[in-house]
Design a protein that fits this description.
Length: about 325
């Protein structure tokens, strides 16, 4: 006799006859999350002198990272791309953010920059690998320390001409493993007309070379989320200016730079798109950057590694295979 086909249970929407209290679960979750804090890891990639450190410090209104650039014209360039990480805990209105800033001094500074992206891609993959090892450990910690890179801000030289070949290669490589956010550095070196023309050219070249920039749309995204994402994509690359200096303008304190034409206010959207970038990174997409890293980039890495382990176990001797299956649950 054939087995009866499984049927999905009927779900009825009910309202309790009196107050039960399960609506407090959101407050319970919030209390736990606030107690634990949040982790956000940002990488900055770009040539020396494009204002990477200044932008990071301006974004988070804190002195988080010092410039690693050359301070004298005759100072020797770094022979390779370095990876330097600094960690801070920032608190705002009871919310604690553990922030890792990953800097890449030396990137793109040489005449021959072949392979200058390799240490960066390796670092990103190494963080995935470290997380996977902890995830597969039998006696793993309740909360795994997350060092996976959630966002990579890529600085484009404001040449006014377009992307360099190295920009195309590196952004393609990075987009495979991390959420890439392109910005035009020191955009005040361009006139407003030049800036808009340069932005359009960069956007066209990104599309031509099929470089997929964050944010991505998901099937379960609501209509308003898709509209926000579309607005961000239309803005990319962000034309930004960073400044940690506070200036007095008509009795108001503003962060900006003084030029012979006047004061450039980094928080004035008529002057640059710094506010749009900050809102995007911290106010609308911070959680999605973290989730996308886990659900897309890390999951792709994890699946590939587990498949390789499974194939390795299948080709191993019986005793070794049994040991690997027990350790890695494959």
């Amino acid at each position: 006799m054939a087995a009866a086909a499984a049927t999905s249970p009927v779900i009825n929407n009910l309202n309790p006859g009196q107050y039960v209290g399960f609506d407090s679960i959101t407050r319970q979750i919030e209390t736990k999350l606030l107690k634990r804090g949040f982790q956000f890891n940002v990488m900055v990639v770009g040539q020396t002198g494009l204002g990477k450190s200044t932008l990071v410090n301006t974004l988070f209104a804190s002195q988080l990272i010092d410039s690693k650039g050359r301070f004298q014209p005759d100072e020797q360039s770094r022979s390779t791309t370095e990876i330097q990480t600094v960690s801070h805990v920032i608190q705002e209105n009871g919310v604690r953010l553990r922030l890792n800033i990953v800097d890449t001094p030396g990137f793109g500074d040489l005449v021959n920059n072949d392979g200058c992206w390799e240490p960066i891609v390796k670092y990103i993959k190494d963080q995935h690998s470290a997380y996977l090892r902890k995830e597969l450990t039998a006696m793993r910690d309740k909360y795994i320390v997350d060092t996976r890179v959630h966002a990579c801000v890529y600085f484009i030289n404001p040449s006014g001409h377009g992307l360099r070949p190295i920009d195309v290669i590196v952004m393609k490589k990075l987009a495979e493993v991390v959420n890439v956010i392109p910005v035009i550095a020191k955009s005040d070196s361009l006139t407003l007309t030049e800036r808009e023309s340069f932005k359009a050219r960069i956007a066209s070249e990104l599309a031509y070379h099929q470089i997929k920039m964050y944010p991505f749309d998901a099937e379960d995204d609501e209509r308003d989320e898709r509209e926000i994402n579309e607005g961000v994509r239309e803005t990319l690359p962000f034309a930004i200016i960073g400044s940690q200096k506070t200036l007095n303008v008509n009795g108001n304190q503003v962060r900006g730079r003084k030029t012979r034409w006047g004061v450039i206010d980094v928080e004035n959207e008529d002057h640059c798109e710094f506010v749009k970038l900050r809102n995007f990174l911290t106010r609308t997409h911070l959680q999605d950057l973290i989730e996308t890293t886990a659900q897309i980039h890390y999951e792709a890495f994890r699946s590939k590694q587990l498949l390789a382990l499974k194939n390795q176990a299948n080709n191993a001797k019986p005793q070794e295979a049994a040991s690997m299956q027990k350790i890695y649950n494959i």
